[in-house]
Specification:
This protein is mostly beta strands. It contains two helices and 13 strands. Strand 3 and strand 4 form a beta hairpin.
Length: 183
């Protein structure tokens, strides 16, 4: 499975090889051996999550602190999202920088979001079904967030944020300078 590098170290996009014929298509969405070969290290995914959202939903930006920081592998089963990751690793050259990529059922791309990043997405299609794997179990006591519209980070969500459907929890997250993370 080919990897596309992003401008942020360790944040990568996977583009699966899709086999089409008159019946439809087939592809491997995850193969532990292929991922390990391409990445050069092993990830032990332990939890799968799935969410369905309507157009203009904005979810995020979320992360989970150590000792149960999470690596996530995100893909879209239906629809299209703008997927965003923000580097929260304090010693990183790209601390506070974000990267976004369109993930869709059509392009079948997947974004690997390593530990140390806040993650979120905006739904661009009428509906979207998002599926992601995690390498650590969810732990409410370790969850954290970054305000989706922090002006110092300045994420372009590819939608009019004034029209976005956002949870109350996500509107109350701290700005980057006040984020409590241990990365």
């Amino acid at each position: 499975m080919p990897i596309l590098q992003t401008p942020i170290k360790d944040l990568v996009i996977f583009e699966p090889k899709v086999f089409h014929d008159d019946r439809g298509y087939f592809f491997e969405s995850y193969n532990k051996q292929s991922f390990e070969k391409e990445l050069g290290y092993s990830i032990n995914f332990v939890q799968d999550n799935q969410a369905r959202s309507v157009k203009n939903v904005l979810r995020g930006l979320h992360f989970q602190n150590h000792p149960q920081g999470q690596t996530k592998l995100i893909r879209v089963l239906e629809g299209t999202i703008w997927d965003v990751a923000v580097d929260l690793r304090k010693d990183s050259e790209t601390y506070g920088k974000w990267f976004g990529v369109e993930l869709s059922a059509e392009n079948k791309r997947q974004l690997l979001v390593p530990i140390g990043f806040a993650h979120g997405y905006a739904v661009l299609s009428d509906t979207a079904e998002v599926f992601y794997k995690c390498d650590a179990f969810y732990n409410k006591e370790l969850e954290g967030g970054l305000l989706y519209n922090d002006e110092t980070v300045n994420v372009d969500w590819k939608l009019n944020v004034k029209d976005a459907i956002i949870s109350e929890k996500d509107t109350m997250q701290p700005v980057l300078a006040d984020v409590k993370s241990n990365f």
